[in-house]
Amino acid sequence: MFDFFKGKSREVTQITSLSAPVSGETIALEDVPDAVFAEKMMGEGIAFQFEGDTVCAPCDGTVSMIAGTLHAFGITANNDAEILIHIGFDTVNLGGEGFTALVKQGTNVSIGTPIIRIDRTFMAQKGIVLTTPMVVTNSADFDLKIADKGMKVEAGIDEVIHFQKS
Fold it and tell me: Active-site residue 86, yes or no?
């Protein structure tokens, strides 16, 4: 008769798109200078010519991994998509220098939440290429529509990947 003791039902929001994690210009994944990403060994995705200093969450979800060297992190989206963002190339060799983690692994985040900040001056001094791939590592579970290369995007705002369960 009364529903006072029943748990409230929770509406699960299904993520239907990923926004750019960085501000800059989109690059086709096939065009990045790293075979692991270019040949899509890690999954389908897109890359960016990173122009800012902050890498943000591309969707609502949980930070599932932050590399000890801070050069990459993973987010598990609310629809179970597993997203990997890799900041630049050869950045693992920096041992975390030039990176600042702004959240901890296990943190629930919203689209646009700052995750990692980089020191652009330090990166330039080290000759680091800041091309930043974003891949859905379990992309075989989804139908993806990926934005065209050459688009100017703003972190946390512009949608670059649309997907739905296969």
Answer: yes
